[in-house]
Amino acid sequence: MSSPSFNAGHTQVFQTGRLTLGFMTPFGHHGGAMADLHANTRLAALADDLGFAALWARDVPLMVPQGSDNTASALDDPFLWLAALAASTRRIAIGAAAIVLPLRHPLHVAKAALSLDRISGGRFILGMGSGDRPEEFASFGESLDARGEAFRSRWPLVRAALSPDADQRQALLDATGGYDLMPPPAARIPMVVVGSARQSLQWTAAHADAWASYHREEGRQQGRIHLWQQALDQKAGGERKPFIQSVQLDLLADPAAPAEPLELGLRTGRNELIAYLQRLHAMGVGHVLFNLAQRQGRAPDEVLREIGQEVLPRL
Asked: What is the Cα–Cα distance from 149 to 91, expressed in whole angstroms?
């Protein structure tokens, strides 16, 4: 069976033999204040000009306090937010990491994904997860315990809608009584499982176009990647589907500053960052998604320029 023809977003982010870099948006956003849209569209355009591969956004339905500092994130709807970033950029991919599928109707998810892919010129990547906040499931009238089953059962309908292949799209037409959501996309919109989504790696290997996971100590992460590659051998016929890793990053101004661990990431100067990224690539990581956590007060545009001009050329 031939490999599917993916959209431009997939081509931009998943490049054979090369590690690509992207950023979670809003840039440097922590806490309850709403992000400045103008500042973020300007930074998105800068990331595009510097040659980064992707901009990502989270799906946070309710402002539920979380984390070690017990703050509540105030984030815009990811599809609307990413549409604004798409309008401010030309080449960089835009991705959701991750839409909480058990809390959304799959036809709504598919409609939004198709719209955003069209608006962006084929640059959209749809990442989805199962969610983990009990308060959200209670508010939306969904079962927390059944979220894995809900994720698994809703995935095929989204997959059918996001494919240009007539045979695959038949499942959508069957579900809607023969009605389409929109004209089929010109190329397949990639779908990424983010986190475990309460599925086995074998299921993810068989159904997803990539898998995204969080930062771990390097030895443990290498073990996870090995399990992913084993699952691909078993369920995807050996197809090399990408592995994405998120990294909380506090980039220090001193290039020679040593690396030290942060929760889900690291604080470091750029020399150690380059070495770390090169090790990740050797393990099999295809894309790194930075979440900037600038504890020293460095401006995001300064950090973007340093990574774009001093780190990207070394990868």
From this structure: 36
Phi/psi at 269 (5° precision): -85, 170
Residue 213 near residue 244 (C-beta atoms within 8 A): yes
Output the CA angle 177-149-77, nearest 5 degrees: 75
The residue among 219, 178, 228 whose CA lies nearest residue 200 is: 228
Distance of alpha carbon 201 from alpha carbon 207, whole angstroms: 10
| Beta strands 124-129 and 210-213, pairing class | unpaired
pLDDT, the chain, mean: 95
User: What is the rounded CA–CA span in Å between residue 247 and residue 112?
Assistant: 27
Task: Find residue 247's DSSP bridge partners.
Answer: 290
**Tokens for 158?**
């989204």
| Cα-trace Rg, the chain | 19
CA of 229: how far to CAs of 16, 173, 195, 268, in Å? 15, 34, 16, 29
Here the tokens at position 49 are 């000009």
Give the model's confidence band at 247: pLDDT under 50 very low, under 70 low, under 90 confident, else very high.
very high
pLDDT digits (tens, 9 = 90+) for 211-228: 999 999 999 999 999 999
Domains and CATH numbers, the chain: 8-314 (3.20.20.30)
DSSP state, residue 61 = -
Residue 259 to residue 262: CA distance in whole angstroms: 9
For the chain, the residue count is 315
